[in-house]
Design brief:
Structural class: alpha/beta
Number of strands: 13
Radius of gyration: 20 Å
Bound molecules: pyridoxal-5'-phosphate, zinc ion
Largest sheet: 4 strands, parallel
Oligomer: single chain
Strand content: 15-25%
Length: about 375
């Protein structure tokens, strides 16, 4: 630390290629910090970058986890890596038997059950923790519909941090158990996820050393989902898929997969070929699908009522950006009933031997519906 005044544009934090936080609504930029709302217009902030030259070879020589993409993520360049317990580089399965059942020529399934706590949430939490450490936090926290709770509690244990996890009291017993085993602080809140989320926002303002991964460090957390897009492209031999079907809860995963594909094209790591992004929801919590069908830009909140608990966010923060991404790429958002979700889980299990949770069932069932309706091209190798 020197006593000379730093120029306005520099930041006190080393978050690798991250340059600033930028407002998704008005474009206003602020220095890197634990902020999530634009001081000018209250719009959501996202990470803006100055990337160095990144080559395929340097990525391929990296760790067999999300950290092979660390020079594309808002984390310190010397990010702490725990060998063998890091998320990412999960299998991309050529799902021939499922393809046949759905009537498509080829189909890819990204199997994120291979992550440390068996969902894609381990990716976003790992990036949030790395950024939170650099930003000076010491406790990892979240409101969760279930999977995030597991990922936060496990990552905190691995890092030697305390964790505070807030869940709706109605959550499935199985998911409560798989969070509790890590022995962080687990609080059941009387209310649904959207109530729990509001409480978390209040607590984040009160406890300066608590990093609520999806609240006060959300801009960094969200970037972790880009790794799904990077991996799919790398695993396809450095090509973008022509169509992807992504489950939508808050909508962050879908928008960041799209951002990841775009970045790879801009960096020259893949040819910037066109791709279409499709969103999948359960009918019992389908505010984004409804807005898409009705041609609206605004997403009306709903009260969730579905077995797909991990997608049950009635007021999705990234809803409007999901609509932007699917409309811009020529995709769609669709939804399926709980009965179809169960059939989707069973279909994936009996054709490919993968027993996914309900979000997997939503994705497979939505892909099936989009194919049946002729909205997803059966010859253009979709990736779920
Ligand atoms: C949270 C979750 C999603 C959706 O994530 P968002 O970024 O909130 O849209 C999808 N699948 C699984 C398994 C999840 O746990
Ligand atoms: Zn703004």
């Amino acid at each position: 630390m020197t006593l000379t005044a730093a120029p306005q544009t520099t930041t006190a934090f080393d978050l690798g290629p991250a340059r600033a936080l930028s407002c998704r609504e008005c474009g206003h930029e602020i220095p890197l910090a634990a902020e999530f709302a634009c001081p000018e217009c209250f719009g959501p902030l996202e990470v803006a970058y100055d990337f160095d030259d990144v080559t395929r070879a340097s990525i391929e020589a990296g760790p067999k986890s999300i950290w092979r993409y660390r020079r594309l993520l808002p984390v310190p360049s010397d990010v702490q890596i725990h060998p063998n317990t890091e998320p990412g580089l999960t299998r991309l399965i050529k799902a021939d038997r499922l393809a046949q059942a759905l009537g498509v020529r080829k189909l890819w399934v990204k199997d994120d059950t291979g992550n440390p706590t068996h969902s894609f949430k381990d990716r976003v939490v790992a990036v949030a923790l790395a950024a939170a450490r650099e930003l000076g936090f010491t406790v990892l926290a979240c409101p969760s519909t279930g999977n995030l709770a597991n990922a936060v509690a496990a990552a905190a244990s691995r890092a030697g941090w305390d964790s505070v996890v807030l869940i709706p009291s109605s959550l499935e017993q199985a998911k409560v158990l798989t969070t509790a085993v890590y022995e962080g602080t687990l609080l059941a809140v009387d209310g649904n996820y959207d109530d729990v989320n509001r409480l978390a926002t209040e607590l984040a303002a009160e406890h300066e050393d608590w990093a609520f991964v999806n609240v006060n460090v959300r801009p960094y957390y969200a970037e972790g989902s880009k790794t799904l897009g990077y991996e799919v492209a790398e695993q396809l031999g450095w090509r973008l898929p022509q169509q992807v079907v992504v489950p939508v809860a808050s909508g962050s995963q879908l928008t960041k997969v799209d951002k990841g594909f775009t970045e790879l094209g801009k960096l020259g790591l893949v040819e910037a070929t066109p791709y279409r992004v499709f969103g999948a929801q359960a009918t019992g919590c389908s505010p984004v699908s409804k807005a898409f069908a009705e041609g609206h830009d605004v997403v009306q909140p709903v009260r969730p009522d579905t077995i797909a608990r991990s997608l049950a966010i009635g007021n999705p923060a990234d809803g409007p950006y999901v609509l932007d991404a699917v409309r811009r790429t020529g995709g769609a958002v669709a939804d399926v009933s709980d009965a179809e979700v169960v059939e989707g889980i069973r279909l994936l299990a009996r054709t490919e031997g993968i027993f996914a949770e309900t979000a997997g069932g939503v994705t497979v069932a939505t892909a099936r519906k989009l194919i049946a309706e002729g909205r997803l091209d059966p010859d253009a190798r979709p990736c779920c």
